């Protein structure tokens, strides 16, 4: 089993593996090219993202700057809007549904590191190559979700459709569909109902 296969299977793997290192270099170079584009180069932005991402639906927009680990493990639905300074650490898959709004400075983080310090320290192969071990879990966001600015979505989290995640929230566990959830750790406040029609929620 390759290190990439281990990574995508949720097993402990070596992120310094040469194949994975090359993939990260490609993704980060493409993200850097995307981040250098101007507002007059929207077509170029779309071309870069379509070449970089696992998939991206129609009318989806990302704004510079954005960072990826691999890019190819991020899947964005149609009509999504991702504001400035998004981070996708997509060692595992990150999937956003259709019509998802993402505020500025939001992080989607799939890697998991050992709790014991001795298991996190740098090690060396018999050839002298340094390495560490980590694992990762996928993130899934349903349709029509709004994620407020500075939110952090942690490994293994699923957010149900039609839910709103408050600004600054740290989402450590699954959040069901159709609710307003806020805080650190993020907790459900209440369902979103027809009573909320035309109501603007300020976090």
Number of helices: 4
Which outline best applies? globular
Main β-sheet, in a few words?
7 strands, mixed
Helix content: 10-25%
Q: Roughly what is the average pLDDT, rounded to an integer?
A: 95
Structural class: alpha/beta
- Widest beta sheet: strand line-up: 2-5-8-15-18-20-21
What distance separates the N and C termini? 46 Å
Keywords summarizing the entry:
203 residues; alpha/beta; 5-stranded parallel sheet; 4 helices; 21 strands; 19% helix
Structure description:
This protein has 203 residues and is α/β, with parallel strands linked by helices. Helices cover 19% and strands 27% of the residues. The chain has helices at residues 3-8, 18-35, 42-52, 117-120, and strands spanning 55-56, 61-62, 66-68, 74-76, 81-82, 86-89, 94-96, 101-102, 107-109, 111-112, 123-124, 130-131, 135-136, 139-141, 146-147, 152-153, 158-159, 164-165, 170-171, 179-182, 187-191. It has a seven-stranded mixed beta sheet, with no helix packed on it. The protein has a five-stranded parallel beta sheet with strand order 1-4-7-14-17, covered by helices on one side. A hairpin with a 5-residue loop joins strand 11 (123-124) and strand 12 (130-131). Helix 2 runs antiparallel to helix 3. The radius of gyration is 18 Å and the shape is globular. The model has no long low-confidence stretch (mean pLDDT 95).
Secondary structure layout plus pairing:
Layout: H1 3-8, H2 18-35, H3 42-52, E1 55-56, E2 61-62, E3 66-68, E4 74-76, E5 81-82, E6 86-89, E7 94-96, E8 101-102, E9 107-109, E10 111-112, H4 117-120, E11 123-124, E12 130-131, E13 135-136, E14 139-141, E15 146-147, E16 152-153, E17 158-159, E18 164-165, E19 170-171, E20 179-182, E21 187-191
Parallel strand pairs: 1-4, 2-5, 3-6, 4-7, 5-8, 6-9, 7-14, 8-15, 9-16, 14-17, 15-18, 16-19, 18-20
Antiparallel strand pairs: 10-13, 11-12, 20-21
Helix pairs in contact: 2-3
């Amino acid at each position: 089993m390759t290190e990439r296969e281990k990574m995508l299977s949720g097993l402990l793997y070596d992120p310094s593996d040469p194949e994975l290192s090359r993939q990260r270099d490609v993704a980060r170079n493409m993200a850097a090219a995307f981040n250098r584009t101007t507002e007059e180069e929207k077509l170029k932005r779309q071309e870069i993202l379509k070449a970089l991402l696992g998939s991206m639906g129609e009318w989806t927009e990302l704004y510079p700057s954005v960072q990826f680990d691999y890019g190819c493990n991020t899947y964005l639905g149609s009509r999504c809007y991702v504001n400035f300074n998004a981070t996708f650490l997509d060692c595992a898959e990150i999937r956003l549904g259709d019509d998802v709004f993402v505020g500025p400075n939001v992080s989607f983080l799939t890697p998991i590191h050992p709790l014991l310090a001795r298991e996190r320290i740098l090690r060396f192969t018999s050839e002298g190559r340094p390495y560490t071990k980590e694992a990762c879990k996928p993130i899934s966001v349903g349709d029509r979700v709004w994620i407020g600015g500075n939110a952090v979505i942690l490994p293994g989290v699923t957010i149900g459709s039609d839910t709103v995640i408050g600004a600054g929230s740290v989402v450590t566990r699954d959040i069901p569909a159709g609710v307003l959830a806020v805080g650190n750790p993020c907790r459900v406040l209440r369902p979103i109902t027809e009573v909320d029609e035309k109501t603007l929620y300020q976090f």
